[in-house]
Amino acid sequence: MDPSQIGFFHALQISTKIDKGMIAITKDYQVCTAGKKMGSSEVVLLQKMGMRPFMYGMEVVSCYDDGALLDKTVLAINTESIVTRFQTGVKNIAAISLQTGIPTQVSIPHNISNAFKNLAAIGLQINYHFSQIAGASSAASAPAAKAPEAKKDDK
User: Fold this and answer.
1) Cα 124 to Cα 130: distance, rounded to the nearest angstrom
2) pLDDT tens digits for range 1-32
3) Which residue segment(s) compose the domain that 28 sits in?
């Protein structure tokens, strides 16, 4: 900005000084406020300073879909809600697959886990021990070992 425009700043009551041939604003001055209409002087000032504080856009109020008028809150979908709904769908598919006995990609891990649990239960019943159920067999045998000692004391 050139010094000949200093009168413009004084008209807006902005304190200025000339520094090295340029106009310098000496105090903070709020030119515009969100939601408040600006006058032509403020617009010219911002243009001279090379600032463009305006944002143009569209705000969705409602949506028309197949004869229904939907409110904008119905259209507010975020990533978290999409992921949650997807996970719920995957869980439902896995549950249906497990109940019908039809293997799917989401039910196979559950099938393998259930098969291992069945093998571990059979192994514990017939006293067959393998490393994958070592923790479960020691926990199952510990109460059984204490029970006979208690019966011996009762006799």
Assistant:
1) 10
2) 555 565 666 566 677 777 777 777 778 877 77
3) 3-48
